[in-house]
Every structure is written in C-alpha cells, then in structure tokens.
C-alpha cells in the first residue's frame, strides 16, 4: 500500500512538473514576449475599438458571434490567437509545426474522450470530458489536462492498484456504440472545422465566414458531445454487460492513424533534402521551397523557455502581419508538448496498474514504446500503453472467470 501511494505520488509530482513547465512556456511567456499584449491591442476591446483586426487577416474582423459581450470578448481573443497562425505571414516550417500540433492535439483529445466514456468513469468528474474541453480551450491545454489526469488517478477505478481483475475489466469497459461514434464525432467536430478554418481567406471563405469558422472550431468539445448524444438518441445501444467491450480497438486505430500520418509526414519533409527535387515545374519548385524551409529543428523543437520569440507591440501603431505567428506557434508547441508528456506518464501508470494484476510491467513495453514514439510521437506512445492496458485487463479477467 505504501509503495502504491509512493508511486502515485511520484506520478502526480511529474504531472505537476509538466504543468509548471508548460505553464511557463505558454501563459508566463505570453505575458512577457508581447503575445498577449498584441492580441489585446488588435482585438481585445471590441466594445470601444472600431479598428479591430488580425495581423495579415482578412477584413473586416468579426467581433460579435453570440450577442453575449463576455463570450464574444473571449472568442475575439481566441479567434485572434488562431488567426495569428492561420492568417499571418508565416513560413513553411511554421505551417508544418501547426498541422503537426493540430493532429497530435486531435489524437490526444480523442484518447481523453475515450477515458471519460468508460463505465468506471460514469457519474464521476472524469466523465465530463466535454466540460474539460471547453475549459482548456479557454485557459490552455496544459493547465487543464494535468488537473484532469490527477483527478482521474484518485477517482477512477481503473487507476487503483490491487483491485480484482474482473472488477477492473468492468470499469474499463466501453459501450461498443461509443467506440464507433467517437472517431466519427471527433472527425466532424474537430478535424472538419479545423481544415475549414485553415483555408486561405478571402480566396476560399469570405472574412466573416472565416472568423465564424475559427470561433466554431474553438467549441469542438461541445459539438462532439452534442453529436455523440444525438447519434445515440437516434440509434440507442444495447443494454447489459455482455454488450460492452474492454478493448476499444477502433478508437486506438483511429488515434494511431492520425499520429503516424502526421508524424511521419512532417518527419519526411524535415529530413528529405531539397536538392532531391531537380524538376523546374511550378509544383516541383514549390516542393523544393517547402523542403528547404522545413528541417527537423524548425518543425519539431520549440524555442527555449529562456529565449522565446519576442515583439514590442508599443513600438508600432499597427502590428505587422509577420509578427505574431512565431509567438503563437511557440505558445502552441509548449502547450501541446508539455501536456503530452503528462499524458504519457499517466498512461504509463495506468498500464502498470493493469500489469500488477497480471505479470510483467513497463519493462516489457520498452521496445514498443520506443517504436511508437519514433513513428507516431508521444500520443502514439500513450495510445499504445492504454491499448495494451486494456488487452491485459481483458485477458486477465477471462482467465479468472475460467478458473472460477
């Protein structure tokens, strides 16, 4: 019991450390490097300012979305933040970072949503993943998700050591309908709006529609929850324990597909030399420019906490189009990377809980963890650990039932 408490305490400390590092790289840095001041200057006061704009974005800027002043003020800042990346003058390496981070963000969100759907989470705060999502869209991923992970460690039956294998399998079980609907609803609520909001404006979308789409995407946790509810209302699932599944493989395959495609895609662009393109056609020249600008460091590694990109918004009357994208990308990188390290630590602990009622442990997974990290990044590692956890729980529970 003491060992269990000590291990869980160490995991909690590690998660808090991730939150502290990420919090500094996002919120603290945002106040120091001019990001937040610039967002406030351009779009932060819709009631008194008439010249609202996103640097490099289409005009006019839309500052009213719901008719509720407090909500619209928050949405204006969020739209301005994402607009800085999407609309500002940026390089191909920033584009590569943006799409990679968005894909990894989507994958980790899907994993957390799955955990909230487990039967052991029902009726507990950890089942409110939609609420958590709306909170992290407001106050950052890194300040919200670690809190959720810590609550999960102390309240979810799947995080408790020493439990009966059959009871652990029952707590980890998921409605099969949810395993089908979750990838579909994640695609409709997160991926489709993310692609739509990233289309160039006004070439593809007029300014108003462009900003509405960014605001709409920011509420993706709400849309996902509503879609899950609506689909299940139309097609209710079977009742009873026999209809449940302990190993939601379809969700893990969906998550790993996102991770692998984004990770290997950006990695290929980063490591392939631009000199390999010898054709002089317009498409070849464009590809050569992408390969020339994107390298491993610029695509995957954020600027240091001690030397972030910085601007002085008070030195100009109007923020230039190329100022804010590097600052917003830096914020996004530390937000996502720090959170995903915490998610991997949490997933590793859950795997160790399952293997404590079986045989083996994290040592058995070392080779797989390294493999999935290389081909899919940290979220792929977390998915691998959770998938293996589910498989171990299911097999152990079946063995116990047969022995009875």
Automatic annotation (TrEMBL):
It comes from the Eukaryota. Keywords: Membrane, Transmembrane, Transmembrane helix. The chain crosses the membrane at residues 65-85, 97-114, 134-154, 166-191, 211-231, 251-272, 336-357, 369-388. This is Uncharacterized protein.
């Amino acid at each position: 019991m003491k060992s269990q408490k000590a291990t869980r305490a160490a995991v909690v400390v590690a998660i808090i450390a991730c939150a502290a590092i990420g919090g500094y790289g996002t919120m603290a840095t945002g106040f120091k490097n001019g990001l937040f001041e610039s967002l406030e200057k351009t779009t932060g006061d819709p009631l008194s300012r008439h010249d609202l704009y996103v640097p490099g974005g289409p005009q006019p800027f839309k500052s009213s979305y719901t008719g509720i002043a407090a909500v619209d003020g928050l949405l204006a800042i969020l739209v301005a933040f994402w607009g800085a990346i999407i609309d500002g003058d940026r390089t191909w390496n920033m584009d590569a970072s943006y799409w990679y981070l968005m894909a990894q963000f989507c994958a980790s969100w899907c994993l957390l949503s799955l955990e909230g759907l487990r039967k052991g989470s029902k009726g507990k705060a950890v089942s409110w993943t939609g609420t958590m999502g709306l909170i992290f869209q407001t106050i950052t991923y890194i300040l919200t998700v670690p809190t959720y992970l810590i609550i999960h460690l102390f309240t979810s039956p799947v995080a408790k050591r020493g439990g009966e294998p059959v009871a652990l399998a029952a707590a980890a079980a998921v409605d099969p309908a949810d395993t089908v609907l979750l990838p579909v609803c994640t695609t409709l609520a997160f991926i489709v709006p993310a692609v739509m909001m990233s289309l160039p404006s006004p070439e593809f979308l007029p300014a108003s529609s462009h900003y509405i789409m960014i605001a709409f995407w920011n509420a993706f946790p709400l849309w996902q929850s509503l879609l899950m509810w609506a689909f299940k209302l139309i097609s209710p699932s079977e009742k009873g324990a026999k209809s449940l599944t302990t190993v939601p493989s379809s969700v893990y395959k969906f998550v790993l597909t996102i991770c692998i495609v984004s990770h290997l895609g950006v990695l290929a662009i980063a490591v392939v030399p631009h000199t390999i393109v010898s054709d002089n056609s317009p498409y070849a020249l464009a590809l050569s420019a992408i390969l020339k600008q994107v390298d491993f460091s610029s695509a995957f590694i954020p600027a240091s906490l001690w030397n972030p990109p910085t601007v002085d918004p008070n030195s100009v009357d109007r923020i230039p189009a190329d100022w804010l994208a590097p600052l917003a990308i830096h914020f996004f990188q530390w937000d996502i990377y720090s959170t995903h390290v915490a998610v991997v630590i949490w997933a590793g602990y859950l795997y160790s809980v399952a293997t404590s009622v079986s045989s083996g442990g994290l040592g058995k997974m070392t080779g797989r963890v390294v493999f999935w990290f290389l081909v899919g990044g940290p979220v792929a590692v977390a998915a691998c650990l959770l998938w293996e956890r589910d498989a171990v729980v299911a097999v152990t529970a079946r063995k116990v039932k047969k022995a009875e």
